[in-house]
Protein: 4-hydroxythreonine-4-phosphate dehydrogenase
Organism: Bullifex porci
Amino acid sequence: MVRYIALPMGEASGVGPEMIIKALQVVDHKVYGGIIVVGDLNLFKKVARDIELPLPFTAYVSSDEDLASRQKEGENHIFYDLQLIDMDLFKYGVISENTGRATYACTAKAVQLIQDSFACSLVTVPLDARAITMAGIKENRYQTMLPEFCSSARGLNMLDSSGVKIFSHTHHVPLRKALEDITFEKILDTIIHVDSLTTNERVFDVEKPLAIASVNPHHADSLSYDDEEREVLIPAIEAARAIGVNIVGPVSGDHLMHRAKKGLYRAVIALFHDQAHIAAMSFDFEHTVTITWGLPFLVVGVDRGAMLERAGKNMMQPYNLIQALKISYEYLLVGVNS
């Protein structure tokens, strides 16, 4: 039985459609499973024509009934056409209300396919939050969209780069706001949440501790700690240990990521976006992916933006997307689905 991954097209005017077309030229369903791409067929025809590649789909559908029939026939790469993009107005690299609404609708449809058992997991390509906002939609990132679609508690993103697993206490917020979010209560909540999400022995080395980064640059000398370490991080770590969490820290960011790469930790917790992403991208830029834990289904995403400036120029390599599909299917095969 083929297990299917749902793959919405992301931001239409960005690099997502190109990455999908290129990735599906090379993926084998025996390795990556069946794939249902949700998007606009006229857009994909244009992108394929412009990058001089054939469309990589074995079947095209526009209803759930058609999809069920094609899946029963064993089709592997299925395109679900929602006909959302106004091609008379479409331009590469130009976001709009139309492209934003299409991103949102395709993602919602992909989630519905999982909820209705047409697919088992979700793989995402880049969106543009500004376009979704232009469409009047508040939930403009996958982190906010997906919990809404599945009426679920918050998911938590984890970067996977060369086997190094990195969670982040804060995500797409300005650095000043990230620092304001470093409070005892919030740090302890993140530690407990990460601990609860890293118990699966098929994904994590559960015998090893979690590790959390420091805010300020310092060595092991306690005199160099600043207020965030003394008043927030250390008390939160001690409180977590008191309830049974195996965690070390705070560890300075450079030492933390070096030790993580050596395999000393189950997973690490960075405190803000770039503390996590700079390390992950340095380890393996082309194969870093984002995995979202805590939702009713597995979500694996390409960890980069829509790259509007590269759209339509045949410049993108699909390595991150291929890696995301590979990890998603490997996890599904061993029963890891959320």
